[in-house]
Design goal:
Length: about 270
Amino acid sequence: MMWIVKLFHSIWQMILLWSFVCRSYFIRLFAKNPIKRRWLQIKNMSNSSRKFLRAFHVKLRVKNQEVLQQLKDNNYLLVANHSSLLDIFLLGAVDNYVFITSTEMSETPIIGNIIRLGGCLYTDRKNKLNLPQEIKRFTDVLKKGFKVVLFPEKPGTDGTKVNEFRPSLFQTAVDAACTVVPVCIRYLKLDGKPINGKNRFVVFWSKSINYLKYYWNLLAHKMEVEINFLEPIEFDPNRDRSELCQLTYEKVSNTFESYENCVAGS
């Protein structure tokens, strides 16, 4: 009978997706100013993210949300680890963000539709020649007052650690002279049980796993997830993108490992 429950949940999410798409096209049709259009798009995405979390039965805990309150009237680059389809929904449910995502992700079912219509920015990691233009485009969005999310983690994670960060797109924070906010995402429980080697494949996704199979496995489960907003890194004109990347990585990785060590020792 589990497949019937999963089918119900998939239909529920298709209805949410259809509602999101309809609002998105309405915004495209009537919001002619590109800045206003992006604000409306990311607000629509944020509202939809909260609904999708309910549809995925995700219980979200947010730590140190006062960090965001202190920066609520400022632009900043939010930098997070990334291991699951749900990461965009998790952060989108917290605030109105512009996400930087890969061109490959824009082609995935469901999340790809949301990315294309949610005011997101694209990076083509396979084409390094486009990097200067991408940095300029992303920097311009930051300078216009938007809060931008970057997932710089190198691929291949199975959720047991935080992989090294790519430094290239940290140049956007340097050029925009803005604050970087590190954030650590941790998936704590699946159906009331700690996430381990037996159930890890349900939550975490890599390119080696068939996307549709992964999405189907993700349905009809209950999850507990924690987002921990860490101490912001203020702009320093003497700090280059490599230093900024390493500092951010250490904050996120150390926070993640401290939790893993605590679980292992309990």
